[in-house]
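Bench notes, afternoon.
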Amino acid sequence: MVLVSTTVAVLAYVVLAVAVVVGIIALAAIAEFVVTNRKERLASHDSIRHYYGSFVLAR
């Protein structure tokens, strides 16, 4: 059995918590971007893949 010090365990939990928070913020930013561009995408009759694929390929 491997014993882990309390400091290492707490640090691991802190890193995990920060990763979860950053992931949630990233998902919220992506969702906001998609919702903001929805009217324009629907007006151009593009699929989601085609519309946002052009953003990826343009960079």
